[in-house]
Design goal:
Length: 346
Protein backbone atom coordinates (compact mmCIF):
# COMPACT_ATOMS: atom_id res chain seq x y z
CA UNK A 1 0.00 0.00 0.00
CA UNK A 2 1.46 3.35 -1.05
CA UNK A 3 1.94 5.98 1.64
CA UNK A 4 2.61 8.83 -0.81
CA UNK A 5 1.27 10.20 -4.08
CA UNK A 6 3.14 9.35 -7.32
CA UNK A 7 2.39 12.89 -8.45
CA UNK A 8 4.84 14.07 -5.78
CA UNK A 9 7.80 12.46 -7.57
CA UNK A 10 9.37 15.80 -8.60
CA UNK A 11 8.04 18.01 -5.83
CA UNK A 12 11.40 18.58 -4.10
CA UNK A 13 13.11 19.41 -7.38
CA UNK A 14 10.35 21.83 -8.37
CA UNK A 15 10.61 23.47 -4.93
CA UNK A 16 14.18 24.47 -5.84
CA UNK A 17 13.52 28.09 -6.82
CA UNK A 18 15.72 28.30 -9.96
CA UNK A 19 13.81 25.35 -11.45
CA UNK A 20 10.26 25.76 -10.16
CA UNK A 21 7.18 24.32 -11.80
CA UNK A 22 7.95 25.89 -15.19
CA UNK A 23 11.50 24.54 -15.23
CA UNK A 24 10.28 21.09 -14.25
CA UNK A 25 7.80 21.15 -17.13
CA UNK A 26 10.65 21.99 -19.51
CA UNK A 27 12.74 19.11 -18.16
CA UNK A 28 9.85 16.70 -18.67
CA UNK A 29 9.48 17.75 -22.31
CA UNK A 30 13.23 17.53 -23.07
CA UNK A 31 14.97 14.98 -25.28
CA UNK A 32 18.51 13.91 -24.33
CA UNK A 33 21.03 11.46 -25.77
CA UNK A 34 23.68 9.77 -23.64
CA UNK A 35 26.71 8.89 -25.76
CA UNK A 36 28.26 6.03 -23.79
CA UNK A 37 26.76 4.02 -20.92
CA UNK A 38 29.91 3.35 -18.92
CA UNK A 39 31.15 5.05 -15.77
CA UNK A 40 29.86 8.53 -16.66
CA UNK A 41 26.88 7.66 -18.82
CA UNK A 42 25.34 5.14 -16.45
CA UNK A 43 25.38 7.64 -13.58
CA UNK A 44 24.26 10.63 -15.66
CA UNK A 45 21.40 8.64 -17.20
CA UNK A 46 20.12 7.62 -13.78
CA UNK A 47 20.23 11.20 -12.48
CA UNK A 48 18.40 12.54 -15.53
CA UNK A 49 15.77 9.79 -15.43
CA UNK A 50 15.16 10.51 -11.75
CA UNK A 51 14.92 14.22 -12.61
CA UNK A 52 12.15 13.43 -15.10
CA UNK A 53 13.72 14.07 -18.51
CA UNK A 54 10.97 13.18 -20.95
CA UNK A 55 12.97 11.14 -23.47
CA UNK A 56 16.37 9.51 -23.14
CA UNK A 57 18.35 7.76 -25.88
CA UNK A 58 21.11 5.47 -24.58
CA UNK A 59 23.91 4.75 -27.04
CA UNK A 60 26.74 2.32 -26.36
CA UNK A 61 28.67 -0.35 -28.23
CA UNK A 62 30.01 -2.27 -25.25
CA UNK A 63 29.15 -5.19 -22.98
CA UNK A 64 29.09 -5.33 -19.19
CA UNK A 65 32.10 -6.90 -17.47
CA UNK A 66 32.86 -7.59 -13.82
CA UNK A 67 35.42 -4.77 -13.73
CA UNK A 68 32.63 -2.30 -14.54
CA UNK A 69 30.73 -2.93 -11.29
CA UNK A 70 33.32 -1.09 -9.17
CA UNK A 71 32.09 2.29 -10.49
CA UNK A 72 29.14 1.79 -12.86
CA UNK A 73 26.49 1.71 -10.17
CA UNK A 74 23.49 1.22 -12.44
CA UNK A 75 24.55 -2.37 -13.18
CA UNK A 76 24.35 -5.49 -10.99
CA UNK A 77 26.09 -8.86 -10.87
CA UNK A 78 23.57 -10.62 -13.08
CA UNK A 79 24.32 -8.12 -15.86
CA UNK A 80 28.00 -9.03 -15.73
CA UNK A 81 27.30 -12.75 -15.55
CA UNK A 82 25.32 -12.54 -18.78
CA UNK A 83 27.67 -9.96 -20.33
CA UNK A 84 24.66 -7.93 -21.43
CA UNK A 85 24.91 -4.95 -23.75
CA UNK A 86 25.28 -1.85 -21.57
CA UNK A 87 22.56 0.11 -23.34
CA UNK A 88 20.14 -2.81 -22.99
CA UNK A 89 20.82 -3.36 -19.27
CA UNK A 90 20.79 0.37 -18.52
CA UNK A 91 17.42 0.81 -20.21
CA UNK A 92 15.95 -2.09 -18.26
CA UNK A 93 17.09 -0.71 -14.90
CA UNK A 94 16.10 2.87 -15.73
CA UNK A 95 12.56 1.85 -16.72
CA UNK A 96 12.16 0.36 -13.24
CA UNK A 97 13.33 3.66 -11.71
CA UNK A 98 10.96 5.89 -13.70
CA UNK A 99 8.42 4.29 -16.03
CA UNK A 100 7.16 7.67 -17.25
CA UNK A 101 10.39 8.41 -19.13
CA UNK A 102 10.55 7.23 -22.73
CA UNK A 103 13.83 5.33 -23.08
CA UNK A 104 15.38 4.14 -26.35
CA UNK A 105 18.41 1.87 -26.28
CA UNK A 106 20.86 1.80 -29.19
CA UNK A 107 23.62 -0.82 -29.33
CA UNK A 108 25.95 0.63 -31.95
CA UNK A 109 29.45 1.89 -32.64
CA UNK A 110 29.14 5.58 -33.55
CA UNK A 111 31.00 6.73 -36.66
CA UNK A 112 30.64 9.51 -39.28
CA UNK A 113 28.12 7.47 -41.25
CA UNK A 114 25.59 7.01 -38.44
CA UNK A 115 26.08 9.81 -35.90
CA UNK A 116 23.39 11.99 -37.47
CA UNK A 117 20.90 9.12 -37.37
CA UNK A 118 21.55 8.22 -33.74
CA UNK A 119 21.67 11.80 -32.42
CA UNK A 120 18.69 13.07 -34.38
CA UNK A 121 15.94 15.09 -32.72
CA UNK A 122 17.59 15.66 -29.34
CA UNK A 123 17.97 18.88 -27.40
CA UNK A 124 21.23 17.95 -25.68
CA UNK A 125 23.93 15.28 -25.71
CA UNK A 126 25.85 14.00 -22.68
CA UNK A 127 29.40 13.03 -23.66
CA UNK A 128 30.31 9.80 -21.89
CA UNK A 129 32.64 8.60 -24.65
CA UNK A 130 35.85 6.72 -23.92
CA UNK A 131 38.05 8.13 -26.69
CA UNK A 132 39.05 11.45 -28.23
CA UNK A 133 38.19 10.51 -31.80
CA UNK A 134 34.54 10.07 -30.87
CA UNK A 135 34.51 13.34 -28.92
CA UNK A 136 35.96 15.24 -31.89
CA UNK A 137 33.35 13.61 -34.13
CA UNK A 138 30.63 14.66 -31.67
CA UNK A 139 32.09 18.18 -31.68
CA UNK A 140 31.88 18.35 -35.50
CA UNK A 141 28.30 17.11 -35.46
CA UNK A 142 27.41 19.60 -32.72
CA UNK A 143 28.81 22.51 -34.74
CA UNK A 144 27.00 21.33 -37.89
CA UNK A 145 23.64 21.19 -36.09
CA UNK A 146 24.19 23.83 -33.36
CA UNK A 147 23.22 21.21 -30.78
CA UNK A 148 24.72 21.69 -27.29
CA UNK A 149 26.54 18.96 -25.41
CA UNK A 150 28.17 18.46 -22.02
CA UNK A 151 31.71 17.10 -22.11
CA UNK A 152 32.98 14.91 -19.31
CA UNK A 153 36.11 12.86 -18.89
CA UNK A 154 37.67 10.99 -15.99
CA UNK A 155 40.82 8.91 -15.43
CA UNK A 156 42.32 7.96 -12.09
CA UNK A 157 40.95 10.54 -9.66
CA UNK A 158 41.04 13.39 -12.20
CA UNK A 159 38.18 14.66 -14.29
CA UNK A 160 36.86 17.63 -16.18
CA UNK A 161 33.50 19.00 -17.32
CA UNK A 162 32.45 21.70 -19.77
CA UNK A 163 29.25 22.63 -21.55
CA UNK A 164 29.60 23.41 -25.26
CA UNK A 165 26.91 25.41 -27.04
CA UNK A 166 27.28 24.08 -30.56
CA UNK A 167 28.98 27.29 -31.67
CA UNK A 168 32.31 28.90 -30.69
CA UNK A 169 34.25 28.08 -28.54
CA UNK A 170 34.25 24.34 -29.12
CA UNK A 171 36.00 21.21 -27.88
CA UNK A 172 38.58 21.41 -30.64
CA UNK A 173 39.74 24.76 -29.29
CA UNK A 174 40.98 22.70 -26.33
CA UNK A 175 41.99 19.53 -28.17
CA UNK A 176 43.03 20.43 -31.75
CA UNK A 177 43.89 16.85 -32.76
CA UNK A 178 43.57 13.31 -31.44
CA UNK A 179 46.36 13.04 -28.82
CA UNK A 180 49.16 10.54 -29.26
CA UNK A 181 48.29 7.45 -27.17
CA UNK A 182 51.64 7.73 -25.38
CA UNK A 183 50.66 11.18 -24.08
CA UNK A 184 47.28 10.25 -22.61
CA UNK A 185 46.47 8.07 -19.61
CA UNK A 186 43.47 5.74 -19.90
CA UNK A 187 41.45 3.60 -17.53
CA UNK A 188 43.56 0.70 -18.80
CA UNK A 189 46.85 2.32 -17.74
CA UNK A 190 45.97 4.57 -14.80
CA UNK A 191 42.83 2.99 -13.37
CA UNK A 192 39.87 4.99 -12.08
CA UNK A 193 37.99 5.38 -8.80
CA UNK A 194 34.23 5.40 -8.43
CA UNK A 195 33.88 8.65 -6.45
CA UNK A 196 35.63 10.55 -9.26
CA UNK A 197 33.39 9.20 -12.02
CA UNK A 198 30.26 9.83 -9.94
CA UNK A 199 31.34 13.40 -9.24
CA UNK A 200 32.05 14.17 -12.90
CA UNK A 201 28.79 12.60 -14.05
CA UNK A 202 26.91 14.56 -11.38
CA UNK A 203 28.48 17.81 -12.58
CA UNK A 204 27.54 16.93 -16.17
CA UNK A 205 23.97 16.26 -15.06
CA UNK A 206 23.84 19.54 -13.17
CA UNK A 207 24.90 21.51 -16.25
CA UNK A 208 22.35 19.56 -18.27
CA UNK A 209 19.53 20.42 -15.84
CA UNK A 210 20.49 24.10 -15.97
CA UNK A 211 20.12 24.07 -19.75
CA UNK A 212 17.01 21.91 -19.88
CA UNK A 213 15.16 23.93 -17.21
CA UNK A 214 15.83 27.25 -18.95
CA UNK A 215 18.69 28.38 -16.72
CA UNK A 216 21.51 28.61 -19.27
CA UNK A 217 22.84 31.75 -17.60
CA UNK A 218 23.89 29.59 -14.62
CA UNK A 219 26.05 27.29 -16.75
CA UNK A 220 29.79 27.47 -16.06
CA UNK A 221 31.52 28.96 -19.15
CA UNK A 222 34.88 27.45 -18.15
CA UNK A 223 36.38 23.98 -17.99
CA UNK A 224 35.96 22.68 -14.45
CA UNK A 225 38.94 20.44 -13.64
CA UNK A 226 39.02 18.37 -10.45
CA UNK A 227 41.70 16.22 -8.81
CA UNK A 228 39.70 14.41 -6.16
CA UNK A 229 42.74 12.71 -4.61
CA UNK A 230 44.71 15.92 -4.08
CA UNK A 231 41.60 17.97 -3.28
CA UNK A 232 42.29 20.42 -6.08
CA UNK A 233 39.71 22.28 -8.18
CA UNK A 234 40.55 24.57 -11.09
CA UNK A 235 38.55 26.56 -13.61
CA UNK A 236 40.16 27.01 -17.02
CA UNK A 237 38.94 29.52 -19.57
CA UNK A 238 39.31 29.11 -23.33
CA UNK A 239 41.46 31.93 -24.68
CA UNK A 240 39.85 33.90 -27.52
CA UNK A 241 43.10 33.48 -29.47
CA UNK A 242 42.59 29.70 -29.44
CA UNK A 243 39.04 30.04 -30.71
CA UNK A 244 40.09 32.39 -33.51
CA UNK A 245 42.61 29.80 -34.70
CA UNK A 246 40.35 26.77 -34.27
CA UNK A 247 39.94 24.85 -37.55
CA UNK A 248 36.47 23.70 -36.53
CA UNK A 249 34.41 26.51 -34.99
CA UNK A 250 36.30 29.36 -36.70
CA UNK A 251 37.64 27.63 -39.81
CA UNK A 252 34.50 25.64 -40.56
CA UNK A 253 36.37 22.35 -41.02
CA UNK A 254 34.48 19.14 -40.22
CA UNK A 255 37.20 16.60 -40.95
CA UNK A 256 36.00 14.09 -38.35
CA UNK A 257 32.43 14.29 -39.61
CA UNK A 258 33.52 14.30 -43.25
CA UNK A 259 35.72 11.21 -42.94
CA UNK A 260 36.59 9.78 -46.36
CA UNK A 261 34.79 6.48 -45.85
CA UNK A 262 32.02 6.73 -43.31
CA UNK A 263 32.05 3.84 -40.92
CA UNK A 264 35.44 2.52 -42.00
CA UNK A 265 36.77 2.34 -38.47
CA UNK A 266 39.78 0.21 -37.68
CA UNK A 267 39.98 -2.86 -35.51
CA UNK A 268 40.98 -1.83 -32.00
CA UNK A 269 41.77 -3.22 -28.58
CA UNK A 270 39.16 -2.06 -26.06
CA UNK A 271 40.09 0.10 -23.10
CA UNK A 272 40.55 -1.90 -19.91
CA UNK A 273 39.59 -5.18 -21.55
CA UNK A 274 41.28 -8.26 -22.92
CA UNK A 275 39.28 -7.87 -26.13
CA UNK A 276 39.40 -6.62 -29.70
CA UNK A 277 36.58 -4.95 -31.64
CA UNK A 278 36.30 -5.70 -35.34
CA UNK A 279 34.17 -3.19 -37.32
CA UNK A 280 31.38 -4.50 -39.45
CA UNK A 281 31.24 -1.81 -42.12
CA UNK A 282 27.82 -1.39 -43.70
CA UNK A 283 26.73 -5.04 -43.63
CA UNK A 284 23.56 -6.11 -41.84
CA UNK A 285 23.57 -9.48 -40.08
CA UNK A 286 20.67 -11.89 -39.61
CA UNK A 287 21.49 -12.87 -36.03
CA UNK A 288 18.93 -15.67 -36.02
CA UNK A 289 20.58 -17.46 -38.91
CA UNK A 290 24.02 -16.99 -37.37
CA UNK A 291 22.79 -18.47 -34.07
CA UNK A 292 21.42 -21.51 -35.89
CA UNK A 293 24.69 -22.00 -37.76
CA UNK A 294 26.73 -21.75 -34.57
CA UNK A 295 24.61 -24.23 -32.59
CA UNK A 296 26.72 -27.11 -33.89
CA UNK A 297 30.00 -25.34 -33.10
CA UNK A 298 29.85 -24.33 -29.43
CA UNK A 299 27.43 -22.92 -26.80
CA UNK A 300 25.48 -19.91 -28.09
CA UNK A 301 23.80 -17.03 -26.26
CA UNK A 302 21.28 -15.01 -28.28
CA UNK A 303 19.54 -11.71 -27.46
CA UNK A 304 17.77 -9.21 -29.68
CA UNK A 305 20.96 -7.14 -29.78
CA UNK A 306 23.68 -9.76 -30.26
CA UNK A 307 24.58 -13.42 -30.69
CA UNK A 308 27.53 -14.78 -28.68
CA UNK A 309 29.64 -17.85 -29.37
CA UNK A 310 31.55 -19.38 -26.44
CA UNK A 311 34.88 -20.60 -27.82
CA UNK A 312 37.65 -22.71 -26.21
CA UNK A 313 40.37 -21.09 -24.06
CA UNK A 314 37.90 -18.63 -22.46
CA UNK A 315 37.40 -16.80 -25.72
CA UNK A 316 34.04 -15.40 -26.84
CA UNK A 317 32.83 -13.91 -30.09
CA UNK A 318 29.96 -11.44 -29.70
CA UNK A 319 28.36 -10.43 -33.01
CA UNK A 320 26.03 -7.42 -33.39
CA UNK A 321 23.45 -6.70 -36.09
CA UNK A 322 25.68 -4.19 -37.88
CA UNK A 323 28.37 -6.84 -38.40
CA UNK A 324 30.55 -5.47 -35.63
CA UNK A 325 32.08 -8.06 -33.33
CA UNK A 326 33.91 -8.09 -30.02
CA UNK A 327 36.33 -10.97 -29.56
CA UNK A 328 37.12 -11.41 -25.87
CA UNK A 329 40.10 -13.32 -24.54
CA UNK A 330 42.52 -11.94 -27.14
CA UNK A 331 44.50 -8.71 -27.47
CA UNK A 332 46.22 -9.47 -30.76
CA UNK A 333 44.32 -7.85 -33.65
CA UNK A 334 45.45 -10.30 -36.37
CA UNK A 335 44.38 -13.21 -34.15
CA UNK A 336 41.01 -11.54 -33.56
CA UNK A 337 40.54 -10.99 -37.28
CA UNK A 338 41.25 -14.64 -37.98
CA UNK A 339 38.55 -15.67 -35.48
CA UNK A 340 36.12 -13.21 -37.11
CA UNK A 341 36.80 -14.54 -40.59
CA UNK A 342 36.59 -18.17 -39.43
CA UNK A 343 33.15 -17.93 -37.83
CA UNK A 344 31.55 -14.96 -39.64
CA UNK A 345 33.39 -14.57 -42.94
CA UNK A 346 35.39 -11.71 -44.38
Amino acid sequence: MAISDPNDRYVRQAQFAPIGESGQAKIQSARVAILGCGALGSVASELLVRAGVGYLRLIDRDLIEWSNLQRQSLYVESDAKQALAKAEAAASHLRQINSSVVIEEVVADIHPGNIAEHLRDVDLVIDAADNFTLRLLLNDWSLSTNTPWVHGGCVGANGQVRYFTGVSPCFRCLVPEVPDPSDVATCDTAGVIGPATHLIASLQSSEALKFLSGNSSAINPRVLSIDLWRNQIREIGIDEHLSNQCPACSGGQREFLDAAEAGASQAETLCGRNAVQIPGGSRRIDLGKIAERWQSVAPVQATRFFTRLQLPDDQTLTLFRDGRAVISGVRDIPHARSIYDRYIGS
